[in-house]
Structures are given as structure tokens and as C-alpha cells.
Design brief:
With 484 residues, this protein is of the alpha+beta class. The chain contains 17 helices and 20 strands. The radius of gyration is 23 Å and the shape is globular. It holds the Pfam family Fer2.
Length: 484
């Protein structure tokens, strides 16, 4: 059985189909049609809902953290122990919520189809903001698409709800909601079981390892932003899933003198502060990783584990010399991330083995790390090419070089010929041009709808030239840049 709060209503579910998304649960099982299906792939934001989780801050104060999610990519099993809020829950005692009023007063809705999703994104923004912030507003709304308004009135609504923030029914009932969430906090493995399909929800790594050993054919479910597409886009059935999002050990982010240890189930939005503090370019790239709804859901371990050749984080992690800890039963092994990727969607992971955490070396003053993402849109888009450069230059000579790319091969991959052309050579234009030529030895890119092979290779070479220019003239730095 799993339990969660639907606004303030306790829901206990056991026999639901584990392949059921929150979107379809709301619409088809609960008769709440305000949440819309636009794309069923997490791109349009029409299905946005907000999920509340009990958190304890550094001072020990308990509070509820509200996050926007794409309900079309969220399986119901991931709600275990949480609070689900949909657009129907905002109106209170016959009065519109302040974010709904702002959309009306700022003329932020025309046809209205996308409006509930915008309202829920604005609600989460208001809950997580103390004042108007244009950057945060754009970030909060980048995952919501509208064909009618041109966005200006919606941004005006965002400014209004953050400037004139008013206490609401959720604030008034916070203490009660915290108590209710504590009362339903999971104490053992939860399960949804429809007879022919099941999803197991362990709480500790040891139980996860035992379950995965017992069900090696199971699909591990973390954020689900990739796995859920199997159901919503390809209409496949997932007979057994194991949800790792309630394993607290795999959501820790710990700082040590020489490294960061990031639990594989840590949401990308949770990774931001730690990675931004060490590597500003990594932080900037994370802000361009899909949308806020996806970053609130998707995990760093999942972005590695799905072995996509265009995943944004692996090239950066490879350039930084990151490692992963793989767990199978009681056995653990540490593997350099670059050795994890074998071929297209093929990895070094053994049967019943899973990524437990990612180890990222902390930054040093000698490192010159930069990352670049080439995509057709600035926000909410997949890379055509993603590049990461990590050089150490001593007395004008390249002492060490790690260069990695995504989108250039069947796997995220180091450019070893390029590195060899750089290492031990003077850091000048001649060396850079020789290294650019070497990239043609490292990669034979494919052409697809995102970019041609010629464009990809030239882009990769130009990014190395860009890196060189930026290091020579830091004042013109633009870092994580989109090329259209």
C-alpha cells in the first residue's frame, strides 16, 4: 500500500496499476480534469501539478517544500508519503487563489488550455519566493508553453504574485499538514500491485539491493522523466518497477575536503547549489537542463544511468574525472564514469547492480573548467552538442587536459586525440588549431534532426576555439551558450 495526501484528503492505494501516471489518476480516477495533457512528454507544462514534501532545514525547523512537476511523467507510486496539489485545490471558500486572480487581472489567459499549468507553476514560484525576481520567474515558467498570450501578461502575473504575496489556506494549515505528513511517513517498503504489474517502494539501500536482486528484470524508477516515456509515448507496459525516490541515503549530497558525494536519487534541482559553488559552468548548464519541472523530478543518477549519448551531465562529469559507486547486494565497486559507457545505451552495469552515488572531485584553483551546450532553443531543449573542457596550464604550457563531448558519438566520450594534441604543448592558437583538427580523429558524428554531422564537428571545434578565446579574454565570457 502507498499513502499520500490529495490536498488534505488522505489517499491509501494498493491495487492501482503502477503504470498509471498522476495525470491520468487525477483525470480518470478522481474526476479532476483541470490538469491537462498537452504532449505527454514533459515539454509543454499543461499537466503541471505541485507536490509537497516534509523537509527539515539546517536550523532543525520542519517545513513543507513545494515543487512543480510534470504529472504526465510522474507515476502514482512516487507520491508515497507526500502531498499532491492540483489546480482544483487552489480555490478556497469560493475565492480564487492570489495566483489565479493575478492571471485574470493581468490578462494572462486566452484559450485557457495551458492556464492550469501556468497557475501551478506560479503557485510553486510564489511558495518559494520572497520577492519579485525576473530570473526566477523565467526559470519557473520556462517549462510552460502558451500559443496565445506571448508570455508578457503571464510574466506580469508572476511579478504580481511575488510582490503582493498573501498568506493562503496552505500557510494557515501548514502545521496541520506537517503533522499529517509525519503521520503517514513511510516506515517500510510500500507497494502498488494490480495483479500483473507491481511497483515496490523501498526506504533503505539494503532493501533496494535485495529487491533488485530478487527482481533483476525490474525497471528502476527515479525521476521517471525518461522511463515514463516508455508508457506515455511508446505505450509499453512496465511489469515491475522499483522506485528509489524514497531511499534517503541516495538523496544525500555531502561535501568532503576533496570531493562531493551526490546520491544517485538526488533531484537535479537539489544538485544545483553544490555543483554551482564548485563549478559555475556546471550550475549554468543545469539551469538549461530541460525545465524546472523536469529538474525537480529528474535525478543525476538517472541522467547517467539511461546512457543517452546526449545527456547533459555526463560530458561535464567525465571532464571533471567523476566516479560512480555501483551497488549489488552487499558489494560495492567504484568506477570511473568514462568507463561506465560501453556503446549506445550499453553500460558496464551488471545484472541487479545500480548506481548508488556519484563522486565529483572538488574544484582547485589550477583547473580551468568550462562547459557549453549547443541547442536550438535556450530553454527546455536537448543538446545537439555538449562540450566540457578541463585544462591545467602551467607557465603557458598545457600540463593536463580532459575534454569530453556529448552528441558526438554513441556515448558521452573523451576526446583523447584532442587531449594528446593539447597536453605538453604551449597554450596558443597554433596548439588549439592542431587540437581542433584532432577532433576529427576522435569523432565521426551522425546526422539527425537536431544537427548534421558536419555541423556537429564544426561546432565542437568552434567550442574549443571559444574556450581558448574566453581564457585569453575573460571579460567576454558567455559560458553556457546556445547556438541557433
Amino acid at each position: 500500500m502507498i499513502q499520500f495526501l490529495l490536498n488534505q484528503e488522505l489517499r491509501s492505494e494498493h491495487a492501482l496499476d503502477p503504470n498509471l501516471t498522476v495525470l491520468n489518476y487525477l483525470r480518470e480516477h478522481l474526476g479532476k480534469p483541470g490538469t491537462k495533457e498537452g504532449c505527454a512528454s514533459g515539454d509543454c507544462g499543461a499537466c503541471t501539478v505541485v507536490v509537497g514534501e516534509l523537509q527539515t532545514d539546517d536550523s532543525g525547523r520542519e517545513h513543507i517544500r513545494y515543487r512543480s512537476l510534470n504529472s504526465c511523467l510522474t507515476f502514482v507510486s512516487s507520491l508515497h508519503g507526500k502531498q499532491l496539489i492540483s489546480v482544483e485545490d487552489l480555490k478556497h471558500q469560493g475565492q480564487l487563489h492570489s495566483v489565479q486572480k493575478a492571471m485574470v487581472e493581468c490578462h494572462g489567459s486566452q484559450c485557457g488550455f495551458c492556464t492550469p499549468g501556468f497557475v501551478m507553476s506560479l503557485f510553486a514560484l510564489q511558495k518559494n519566493s520572497d520577492h519579485a525576481d525576473s530570473h526566477k520567474a523565467h526559470e519557473a515558467l520556462a517549462g510552460n508553453l502558451c500559443r496565445c498570450t506571448g508570455y508578457r501578461p503571464i510574466l506580469a502575473a508572476a511579478e504580481q504574485v511575488c510582490c503582493a504575496k498573501q498568506p493562503d489556506q496552505f500557510d494557515a494549515r501548514e502545521a496541520e499538514t506537517i503533522a499529517r505528513l509525519k503521520a503517514i511517513a513511510p516506515t517500510d517498503t510500500g507497494e502498488l500491485n494490480s495483479g500483473d504489474k507491481r511497483c515496490l517502494v523501498p526506504l533503505i539501500v539494503a532493501d533496494l539491493a535485495d529487491l533488485y536482486d530478487a527482481y533483476p528484470q525490474a525497471k528502476l524508477l527515479a525521476g521517471g522523466t525518461d522511463l515514463a516515456l516508455e508508457v506515455t509515448q511508446f505505450h509499453r507496459t512496465l511489469p515491475v518497477m522499483i522506485y528509489v525516490g524514497n531511499v534517503a541515503e541516495m538523496k544525500r549530497i555531502e561535501r568532503f575536503d576533496d570531493r562531493l558525494e551526490i546520491g544517485a536519487a538526488s533531484a537535479l534541482s537539489d544538485c544545483y547549489d553544490a555543483l554551482q559553488a564548485e563549478y559555475p559552468d556546471f550550475g549554468e548548464l543545469l539551469q538549461r537542463f530541460a525545465s524546472l519541472q523536469i529538474r525537480n523530478q529528474g535525478t543525476l543518477g538517472g541522467n547517467i544511468g539511461n546512457a543517452s549519448p546526449i545527456g547533459d551531465s555526463p560530458p561535464l562529469l567525465i571532464a571533471l574525472g567523476a566516479q560512480i559507486v555501483l551497488c549489488k547486494g552487499e558489494t560495492r565497486r567504484t568506477l570511473a564514469l568514462e568507463d561506465y559507457f560501453i556503446d549506445y545505451r550499453v553500460t558496464a552495469r551488471q545484472e541487479s547492480e545500480f548506481i548508488e552515488k556519484i563522486i565529483v572531485p572538488r574544484a582547485s584553483a589550477e583547473q580551468l573548467f568550462r562547459a557549453y551546450k549547443v541547442s536550438k532553443r535556450l530553454d527546455d531543449d536537448i543538446s545537439a552538442v555538449c562540450a566540457a573542457f578541463n585544462l591545467r596550464i602551467e607557465n603557458g604550457v598545457v600540463a593536463d587536459a580532459r575534454v569530453a563531448f556529448g552528441g558526438m558519438a554513441a556515448t558521452p566520450k573523451r576526446a583523447k586525440s584532442c587531449e594528446a594534441a593539447l597536453r605538453g604543448a604551449p597554450w596558443n592558437n597554433t596548439t588549439v588549431e592542431r587540437a581542433c583538427a584532432a577532433l576529427a580523429q576522435d569523432f565521426t558524428p551522425l546526422s539527425d534532426f537536431r544537427a548534421s554531422k558536419e555541423y556537429r564537428l564544426l561546432s565542437a571545434q568552434n567550442l574549443l576555439r571559444k574556450y581558448f578565446i574566453e581564457l585569453q579574454t575573460p571579460h567576454i565570457e558567455t559560458r553556457v551558450t546556445a547556438y541557433v
